[in-house]
Amino acid sequence: MFQVLADGLIIGSVISLGAIGLSLTMAIVRFSNFSHGELLAWGAYLALLISSLIPFGAAPIGPFSFGWGLIVAMLAAAAGTALLALLLDIILFRRLRQQGSITLVIASFGAALVLRNGLLFWQGGVPQYYSQNLQIAIALLPRRFHGGLRFTPDQLLVLMLTLAIVAGLHFFLRYSVLGRSMRATALNPALARVTGIDPERILRATWMMGGALAAVAGVFAGITVQLRPTMGVDLLLPLFAAVILGGIGSIWGSVAGGLLVGLAESASVTLAGAEYREAAAFAVLIVILMIQPNGLFGEKA
Questions:
Q1: Could you tell me where the beta strands, DSSP code E, fall in 124-187?
Q2: Is the CB of residue 8 less than 8 Å from the CB of residue 259?
Q3: What Cα–Cα distance (Å) separates residue 141 from each residue in 3, 149, 163?
Q4: 253: Cβ–Cβ under 8 A, 6 or more apart, which residues?
Q5: Are 164 and 17 in contact, with CB atoms under 8 Å apart?
Q6: pLDDT bracket for residue 125 (50, 70, 90)
Q7: CA 227 – CA 213 distance, rounded (Å)
Q8: Which of 6, 16, 297, 8 is CA-nearest to residue 163?
Q9: What is d(CA 279, CA 298) in angstroms, rounded to the nearest whole number?
Q10: Which backbone phi and psi does 209 adopt, to 5 degrees?
Q11: Is residue 47 within 8 Å of 70, Cβ to Cβ?
Q12: Separation between Cα atoms, residue 287 and residue 244, nearest integer Å
């Protein structure tokens, strides 16, 4: 029981970070970006490339499986993926913005296919790892307590870093000038424009923030599981489920939605089998939306 909870928290932490970026895009840019999952994959592989080029930091840090080189590579990959997301907007989405959300959604499908196949062409279809070092899980609870509770050091670090990033993002959106401008644009774009907020500046910031968060989520997925060129499309539906479940535009809603989706997937693997993971996540989504149609933290229409 406790181990199912632990596995769900690990899965949910990755989904939560990716869902925050998607939620911001849906709230501010106002369309469902189906290429967002591919940004996770590109961020993960950019970190792999950069870490292989860094001549230092290969030795593992303490009990972890990776060294300082991967931390530096993750930050560089976040910046690179932020620029990739902004480039997508400049080349594709900005030109189609006046055509309506349906056109943007279809264009995002095309962008996702291009990004996914480009990654397959670049990396091939073989799964890869940031490190070949083996880790021994730490027993936080003995087995007599409902089977026990075990985490690897990498998993514990991912959980702590996810919490720190979400908390930092919360304070940024609440107290910084740019963060308040983004919240105002999400709530009422016309009124925000009248008060002097530059909508293009907010859109650029949204794309870059979403891309950076996607890259970090991709690296966390690579650390805790593995890297696959199809990891973006595999995570896409859980990302959307988390955003809708938590409420579009809500950071803590995305976190709660991601954790619930992760827990549902973890429980379904134990109770029914891995093939029912996505079905279980969407079953939870349907049940909660029947009770709370706007999501857990969504604003009432």
A1: 138-141, 149-151
A2: yes
A3: 10, 5, 22
A4: 23, 243, 245, 246, 247, 295, 296, 297, 298
A5: no
A6: confident
A7: 17
A8: 16
A9: 23
A10: -65, -45
A11: yes
A12: 12
* Contacts of 267 by beta carbon, 8 Å cutoff, 6+ apart: 4, 8, 280
Q: Supply 160's token pair.
A: 């702590």
**Tokens 């869902």 — which residue?**
19
* Confidence (pLDDT) at 301: 44
Cα–Cα distance for residue pair 258/236, rounded to 1 Å: 12
Q: What is the pLDDT of residue 132?
A: 82
Mean pLDDT of the chain: 87
Among 35, 26, 27, which residue's Cα sits nearest to residue 87?
Answer: 35
Whole-number Å distance between alpha carbons of 63 and 190: 51
Contact predicate 56/283, CB 8 Å: no
Whether the CA torsion 60, 64, 68, 69 is positive or negative: it is positive
Q: Which amino acid is at 54?
A: I
Tell me the CB-side half-sphere exposure of residue 22, using CA atoms within 13 A. 37
Per-residue pLDDT at 161 = 94
Q: Please classify residue 134 by burial: count the beta carbons closer than 10 Å to its beta carbon, then call 0-12 exposed, 13-18 middle and 19+ buried.
A: exposed
